[in-house]
Amino acid sequence: MSQDLLRHTLAALAYRAGKALRGAPPEFAAYRTDPTGRTPVEILAHMADLFDWALSIVNGNQTWHIAEPLPWDQEVARFFAALQAFDARLASEEPLGAPAERLFQGPIADAINHVGQIAMLRRMAGCAMSGENYFVADITVGRVGMDQAAPRREF
After folding, report:
1. Which stretches does DSSP call E strand in the chain?
2. Of 22, 36, 70, 108, which shows the fewest CB atoms inside 10 Å?
3. Alpha-carbon gap, residue 119 to 125, rounded angstroms
4. What are the pLDDT digits (tens) for 28-83?
5. CA 8 – CA 141 distance, rounded (Å)
6. How many CB atoms lie within 10 A of CB 41?
């Protein structure tokens, strides 16, 4: 797996995460389906932690930290900042401190899963987002912040 494919995956993740996070009402952050499940803001904090961990892996000093969730808007910003820092590191000429396949199977695949959880929780909480044909979405390598292209084909 190449770093280019990893970076495209991050751009697709950012696009989908942006769609799942944008426009969520303030009360959504604390929505809970049962007493043992994570809230959306807890899931989002975990996603930011995943990319902090991924960055530590590629830099050769693997560390895991569980951050206390911030308020929703701050946690959204922290997630995209962590994603941008990881993407910038992948774009550099420095060698990775781990195989690309392992980075995909660990933190990246985990984060993809969690974007789906947030999307599902939005529907359960009564604030569903529109579906979209992601195959035609304008996803660009390096665009991994909250500011994403407008959807091309929603349904």
Report:
1. none
2. 36
3. 10
4. 999 999 999 999 999 999 999 999 999 999 999 999 999 999 999 999 999 999 99
5. 5
6. 21
